[in-house]
Amino acid sequence: MQHSTENVMVISKCIKKFLVSVVIGSCCAAPAVAADKVKFNLAWLPQGSTGGILVAIAKGFYAEAGLDVSAVRGYGGQRTVNEIDQGLFEFGYGDPISVMLNRAQGGKTVMVGTINTRWPAALCYIDKPERKLQKPADLKGLSLGGGAASPLQNIVPNWLQANKLPADHIKLLRLDPSVINSSFLEGRIDLAECWEGANKPILEALLQKDGKKLGWMRYRDFNLNLYGNGIVTTEKLVASNPDLVRRFVQATYRGFDYQRTHAKEAADAIASQQKLMDKGILLQQITETNQIIEDPEADNKKLGWMRADRMQATVDFVKKAFNLQAPIKANDIYTNKFVE
Questions:
Q1: 271 is in which domain, residue-wise?
Q2: Are 105 and 135 members of one domain?
Q3: CA 112, 68, 334 angle in degrees (round to 5)?
Q4: Helix (H) or strand (E) holding 91
Q5: Is 318 helix (H, G, I), strand (E, B) or coil?
């Protein structure tokens, strides 16, 4: 009986010590810090061109940077940049053309890193043995479908003129964006604008099913020296919370670096969260994005870095193509300080 009493007392002392340690530990432990919530506008559906963002989410790179990032589908580049300017998103996938047009209307968006170091668009066509399309002059009289509000309506005529061709060298049609791909695949238009890392692999796959082959002519191979899409935010966020901007930018390029060095694993990571994506098409989109995320001519090889000369060429072309009168300077639309 005595041993039983002693055992109870020993157990009671142990319980008291445990409770005391729990109380002390809970008092002294540092409070958990909530991750900063960030919304990113993808500008379209999830795809390889924005794969670095999706990888950074899937691999926990944002979480390690203290960020809770949600990627939201978008509805085109210009709308995406305007929604960022309106405060609906902290960041998004946008291009310098959209940034300049936003700023011309009083907006204050800015690029904080590039993803496409060269313009990723091309004019795509169905390859035919009897037709050789190798240079812009070969496109004479062909029809090209584009949305009424698409930048294509301004870019193509000025691109043709840069190649010493008349602005009407190509028949530029205004179509509902929802029918452009079907019109192209059915042969009702000769040309369609396609984008590396986005719809180009999709068009290739659809044509292959019919035993056809996709051909393309990249703008950048013929006198179009523009930056493509990158990370866009607002001057307000840059000024008010530069630490958040830096953490987001660094984690994003960590995702793109992983995608660049582990393409298949990146596709697997994205597909594990985006169940409806075709992994083969996704892998091709990633491969195409990887090819233009690095700029071999840049002195600074860090991912995201933007060259002053190419950004100036971008501004000069956009001002002419869109007849912008606003006094927008190249330095107004981008900064490298978060990728340095």
A1: 36-118+227-332
A2: no
A3: 5
A4: strand 91-94
A5: helix
SS3 state at 109: strand
Task: Specify the DSSP class assigned to residue 330.
Answer: G
Backbone angles phi, psi at 121, to 5 degrees: -90, 160
First-to-last C-alpha distance (Å) of the chain? 75
Question: Could you give the C-alpha distances from 189 to 143, 159, 171, 192, 225, in angstroms and in order?
Answer: 5, 20, 10, 8, 27
Distances (CA, A) of 124 to 89, 118, 152, 185, 309: 32, 17, 13, 11, 28
Contact between residue 201 and residue 279 where contact means Cβ atoms under 8 Å apart? no
CA distance 338 to 319: 27
303-315 confidence digits (pLDDT tens)? 999 999 999 999 9
The set of residues, in sequence order, having a beta carbon less than 8 Å from that of 57 and lying 6+ positions away, is: 69, 71, 255, 273
pTM assigned to the model: 0.88
Asked whether the beta carbons of 116 and 227 are under 8 A apart, the reply is yes
| CATH number for position 202 | 3.40.190.10
The contacts of residue 265 (CB under 8 Å, 6+ apart) are 258
pLDDT tens, residue by residue, 85-125: 999 999 999 999 999 999 999 999 999 999 999 999 999 99
CA neighbor of 137 nearest in space, from 173, 113, 115, 169: 169
Query: By three-state DSSP, how is residue 41 classified?
Result: strand
Q: Would you say 113 and 92 are in contact if contact means Cβ atoms under 8 Å apart?
A: no
Mean pLDDT for 32-44 is 91
For 208, the 3-state DSSP assignment is helix
**Alpha-carbon separation of residue 72 from 11, 24, 77 (angstroms):** 55, 43, 13
Which domain-ending residue is among 221, 236, 253? Answer: 221
